[in-house]
């Protein structure tokens, strides 16, 4: 007699439900990326037919295959199993936005959340006189857009100043030295949109 358990009907149902949920999440992530089965298959070294069956919960997959699928989708294997992080509308309340370390008098919040991996969105708040720091900085070489939501700021790009008011925006490469400062007597709020994401 062995210690191996034989799954009963309820265990089989649970496994089937888990396979179906995993497959549905893979399909949702693939659709969100606008990838065809063929494109995902090429990136993950899998046949489109196998992926189609996997998305319908009709076959199982090895961890190695799931790693390749996750990497092709810009995710981790944990993301594929995270039911709370499933694709779809996700509300991030203002009070719950992750805050990043910034210069005194300014606050920077991450708006874009995993598994979104094609762009980064940050909200910035600047008290009167506050800035991103004394020195201009760079990060990677991506397309970056700064949009002023309220108040007014000055953005210095490679030593050249641009004054922006609410509703104004400016586009530049993140590899260009840049610095933001609020030179006014009222707070300012801005939005940064960066694609593709860059290291901080």
UniProtKB/TrEMBL annotation:
Keywords: DNA-binding. Residues 26-80 form the HTH cro/C1-type domain. It holds the Pfam family HTH_31. PROSITE patterns: HTH_CROC1. SUPFAM superfamilies: lambda repressor-like DNA-binding domains, RmlC-like cupins. This is Helix-turn-helix domain-containing protein. It comes from Streptomyces kebangsaanensis.
């Amino acid at each position: 007699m062995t210690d191996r358990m034989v799954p009963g009907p309820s265990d089989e149902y649970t496994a089937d439900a888990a396979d179906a949920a995993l497959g549905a999440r893979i399909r949702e992530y693939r659709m969100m990326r606008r990838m065809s089965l063929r494109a995902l298959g090429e990136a993950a070294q899998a046949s489109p037919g196998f992926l189609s069956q996997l998305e319908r919960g009709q076959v199982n997959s090895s961890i190695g295959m799931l790693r390749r699928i996750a990497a092709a989708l810009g995710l981790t294997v944990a993301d594929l199993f995270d039911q709370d992080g499933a694709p779809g509308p996700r509300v991030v309340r203002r009070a719950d936005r992750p805050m990043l370390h910034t210069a005194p008098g300014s606050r920077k919040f991450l708006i874009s959340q995993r598994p979104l991996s094609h762009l980064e969105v940050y909200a910035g708040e600047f008290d009167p006189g506050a800035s991103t720091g004394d020195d201009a900085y760079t990060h990677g070489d991506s397309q970056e857009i700064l949009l002023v939501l309220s108040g007014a700021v000055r953005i210095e790009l490679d030593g050249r100043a641009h004054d922006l008011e609410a509703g104004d925006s400016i586009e530049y490469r993140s590899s260009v030295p840049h610095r933001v400062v609020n030179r006014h007597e009222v707070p300012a709020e801005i939005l940064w949109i960066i694609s593709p994401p860059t290291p901080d």
